Every structure is written in structure tokens, then in C-alpha cells.
Amino acid sequence: MTEDTQSGRRAAPASPATLDDVARRAGVSPATASRALGDHPHVAVATRARVREAAEALDYVASPEATRLAGGPTGRVAVLVPHPARWFFGELIEGLEAALRAADLDLVLFRVGGPEERAAFFDRLPARRKVDAVVVLAFAVAEDEHDRLASLGVDIVVAGGRAASYPSVGVDDHGAGRQAMDHLIHLGHRRIGMIAVENTGRLAPDPDGRTSAWRAALGDAGIAPADELLVTVPWGGEGGADGMARLLGLRTPPTAVFAHDDETALGAVRTLRRAGLRVPEDLSVIGVDDHPLAALADLTTVAQPVREQGRRAGELVAAGLRGELRERVPPAELLPTRLVLRRTTSPPGAPR
Questions:
Q1: What SS3 class is residue 307?
Q2: Cβ–Cβ contacts within 10 Å for residue 262, how many?
Q3: Half-sphere exposure of 48 (CA within 13 A, CB side)
Q4: How far is residue 222's CA from residue 225's CA, in Å, rounded to a whole number?
Q5: Contact 40, 32 (CB under 8 A)
Q6: What are residue 137's DSSP bridge partners?
Q7: Residue pair 202/140 in contact by the 8 Å Cβ criterion
Q8: What is the CATH number of domain 12-69?
Q9: pTM of the model
Q10: Contacts of 79 (CB under 8 A, 6+ apart)
Q11: Residue-wise pLDDT tens digits, 314-340
Q12: Where are the domains of the chain?
């Protein structure tokens, strides 16, 4: 208690400063403040000095928990990946690992694919995972999972999509979809089908951006989107093959198809060829990604720089460990996509 000299009463002491107070005053995240107070080698000297000045100004005394979070660096970054065997995630990991290696950091991979596997990982997270940062690869983090990640007191970065809560690197899925659709419309197609894939936890805020692009492009061209021309299938080549079969079964099939991704598109092409139809003379097909198989199959696509997304996410991790990411989450970094013209698209009814 302190004495109130005017009233003679003793006033209650002010609440002790917290690590959040120090971080706010220094203009950094709590994780960075914790590392700065613990002399983490990846925190810039100027940032460390600013955090210490803020702590002294606030008479901050580290709590046992804050001391634990400020423990020595591990040199490890946890990477959470739902489908490590898929090309997209493999490319993200390649780029991420290169950037982390350049920063003298090790990548530790954790698979969080099925619901049980994912739940078990997050249940054991605080007790078992001692890392300097976490990278989430292209899946949406639920609210309870967000809280578990926050309990680590480290920076979180997202690669391969956008997330409002964390620094992230991805592409504009709606924009990529518009590039594909605008190409087909420019060629003269008016009855355009879409093979979408089931939403299995893709990243917000635009998990269905490519599907919304299909609708928007048709609407802008004065074409009413027909619900029968939109089919949703499981991800992958088999799903694409089944989706194409459903579209061919319509009374009036489309003259062109926009597939959510290249692997789905390649499945669609297989169905067309087995049905004796010519691509693109009888039906055009376009995908998204620029998967290596797309070039071999001469598939028209919209390319996205997948490996570069991983690399930039790794650079964000290194910047965070140096104290260069402020408390405010920076806007999502969106890398450009581009149309790649090959031999699976042409004007409707084009001669052989």
C-alpha cells in the first residue's frame, strides 16, 4: 500500500506491468519481447535495447512463465502440414526449408492431416513442442487451435494461403480463377463448367475463391451461371475424372471446363479422351497451379509460385526472430499468378 498524502488514506498499488505491456510500449509482439529479454541471438540489438528500455520504464519483473518463454533458442521451427505427399505442400516445404537453412534454422515437420491426428497434435502441443516459431502450411486454424498455438509464445506464420490472425504469404485465388475464366470467355466460350473440390479446411478469408471467380466472370460477361455446370468432387485426378463424367452426362454439356487445380484438370482430360472426345477441339480444359505434369500434358493453366510462397514465409519467420515483425499483424503478402497458354484450350468448335 502507498500513502495518499492529501487524504491520509493508503491507496492500492498499481497493477504490476505484464509482458504484454512491455511489448505494447516497445512496439513488438509479446513473443519478440520475451526473446529480447532473454537475450535471444536472433533479436536485433536495437530491438533488444528498445524492449529493455520499455521494461525498465514500466518496472517490469519477469514472471516464471515469461522466463520460461524467454529461454534459450532452440534453432528449430515447427512446420504443420496436412498432406506432405502432395506436390503443392512439397513445393512449399522446399522453399521454406531453403529460407530457414539460410537463417541457420532447422525445420521440424509435423503432419496434421486427419481429424484424430490433428486433435492429438494440438492436445499435446504445449508440453511437447519447444520451438522458436511455427509455420502453418495452407490450412485454416480453428479457434481452439489458435489458443493452443498462442500458448507457445512464439511467432506464427502461414504459407500457401491467407489468415487474418497471422503474417501470411499466398496468392489471390479469386484473381487466379478470373484469369482462367476470362481466358475461356475471351476465346468465345459461353457454356463453361467448373469442377470444384471439397473444402477440407482451406484457408480463410477466401476458401472458395476460385469458385466465386467462376460465378463472377460469367456474371460480368452477361451469362447466368447454371448450377448444373458446377460440380464438386474430392481433390485429385480421380475426382476430376468423375466430375468431368458428370458434366458430360448433362443434356447440354459445356464447351469448356475450369478445374480447381491441375491434378483435377488432368483427371478431367482423361475422361474426355476415354470418351473419344478431342481436347481442345471438342472441349477446352484449364487448371490452376502449373504442376510439373501440366507441362508434360500440354495443359493450359494459371501458374502460381508455390515454392516462392514457402521461401517468403521462411523469410518472415527469420524477420520475426530478429524482432522485425511488430505487434500488428502485417497484411497478407500476395504473390502474382500468370496465365500459361498450352494446347488444351481453343475457341469452341475449333477445327482439328
A1: helix
A2: 28
A3: 14
A4: 9
A5: no
A6: 159
A7: yes
A8: 1.10.260.40
A9: 0.77
A10: 93, 96, 107, 108, 109, 110, 134, 135, 137
A11: 999 999 888 776 555 677 899 999 999
A12: 12-69, 173-303
